[in-house]
Prior knowledge:
The protein is an alpha/beta fold. The chain is about 35% helix and about 15% strand. Helix 14 links the parallel strand 16 (about 400-410) and strand 17. Helix 3 (about 50-60) runs parallel beside helix 6 (about 165-180) and helix 9 (about 290-300) packs parallel to helix 10.
Amino acid sequence: MFYKDTLLKQVLKPGRYTGGEFNQVIKDPEQVKCRFCFAFPDTYEIGMSNLGIRLLYGSLNEDPDVYCERTYAPWVDMEDQLVKNGITLSSHETGTPLCDFDILGFTLQYELCYTNVLNMLRLGHIPVLSSERGEDDPIVIGGGPCSYNPEPLADFFDVFSIGEGEEALVEFAHLYIDMKASGQYDRRKFLYEVSKVPGFYVPSMYEVTYNEDGTIKSFCPKYDGVPAKITKRIIKDFDKAYFPEKPVMPFIECVQDRITLEIMRGCIRGCRFCQAGMIYRPIREKSPSVLNEQAKRTYENTGYDEISLCSLSTSDYTGLRELTDGLLSWTDDRMISLTLPSLRADSFTDELMQKVSSVRTTTLTFAAEAGTQRLRDVINKNITEEEVIRACKVAFAAGKTAVKLYFMIGHPTETDEDIAGIAELCKHIIDAFYEVEDRPKGKPQITMSVACFIPKPFTAFQWEGQDPLPEFRRKQQLLGHLCSDRRIKYNYHDADGSIIEAVLARGGRKLCRVLLEALDRGMKFDAWSEFFSSEKWFRLFEDCGVDVKFYAERKRETDEILPWDMIDCGVSKEFFIRERKKAYEGRTTPSCAEQCAGCGANRLGGECTWCPNTKK
Length: 616
């Protein structure tokens, strides 16, 4: 049942929970064979902006045998009301309690959402531990970027979907339907059959043993037929991939209220710290004509006045000129803004600036990542200071007074000279502003946003150690001391949170008991500053006997068994080892557009746009 009116009057934003949005999918639950609920472990405003949820919600609902609904993490005021009134967390479309669905799917976008996942299971009256679920409980499946190291959540999920789910989840639902229809279904049999389907990891089908020092000794399937490696699923023909032309329209303001056009998957650049650039390979592009038609139809179905081109590196899309020309041919008359995020400084041109100049409130952002050329070569950023300054000059000449630059501290081999280089680069950009003859009136404003390095799985730096907390803080203070110019705004990420993220990103199954204890201690919304407490997390680790240094600071050997080694993301471990070696030698690897580096992702079968072995 839907939450009662009296309940909604007790919460800050009732629109988070009412359902009934325009374009939501309505089916008769009695006429479908599988009821699926997608759960986003954060607030409605964030979840409704997530393109992945839109893709999977739509692709599942295209199947007449499946009804996919949605649910989101209730804010603390609604959670209090649910608990107080004994009401189960329910779906938006029909108000069905989560425990009454056949399948409950979570998207795992960031590590600090893990406590929300467990809290939602408890609020949905579903046993938190998969081992305690019975035949009438939903199958709980997880996917998304964090599923590439699923082990810290292994005790809580029945299944993980590895890779792209638009086709895989429909296949998963039909295996459930077929086994139910044939009378062969029971929970254990179903999970065994799922484990043999490419792209699905079932933690209960594997056994992990450990060495005395806490490292993994072995990771083995328990039963015949269960694969030793789980290879991710991909959409091979991106032009034919499902696209949500009728997205659900939120009742309240969301983080991103716009049309999002995913123009490509993967990235040609190969930054050695970047997980997304690796796990989304092979690189596949969608045709400009297909994108233009999808944008038109989405506009007709929503009325949105902004279109955002979505990719890891928009300016590397080979059809960008054709696409933007096509979009501007009809968006200008309708007063629809076009935004191009994720622009590379080395490919930012006057032409691109003209195409985004209509969005006058937008601050252009460039990711320099490091302050010196030496360190940019180590991380394979493949841009120069001159290219960053030239891109900023293009923005200044077009009337912009503000630019934002992303940096990261804590990279392998980093020195104080590299930290000082960040401040120097920003000062050089200020000088460049005054060198532009037709610059706008006023003073320049450089926003310097600095994150902390986290050694992520499936990167060349996955074996590296992370800086200790005192060292992160020292570097942050040093940079702040060097940036006394009021025209430079210095923002930096919380180092405590980055260390906790590193523990969760690199950990194994032993962390499951830590997360279970975190749930019992009431920890949730850890991605929100008003709820996150590093003190609570470090106390939790200490109470559970977890050595933070073992997971975050410890440098690993390349022959160590890593918790995520059973996953095959397409990019080979040999490639990562080669890239790590080149990093310490200060050698760069050209982009895929210049030369194929042999990462191995083309073997998954998708036509990598740049690979000579797959290009038509």
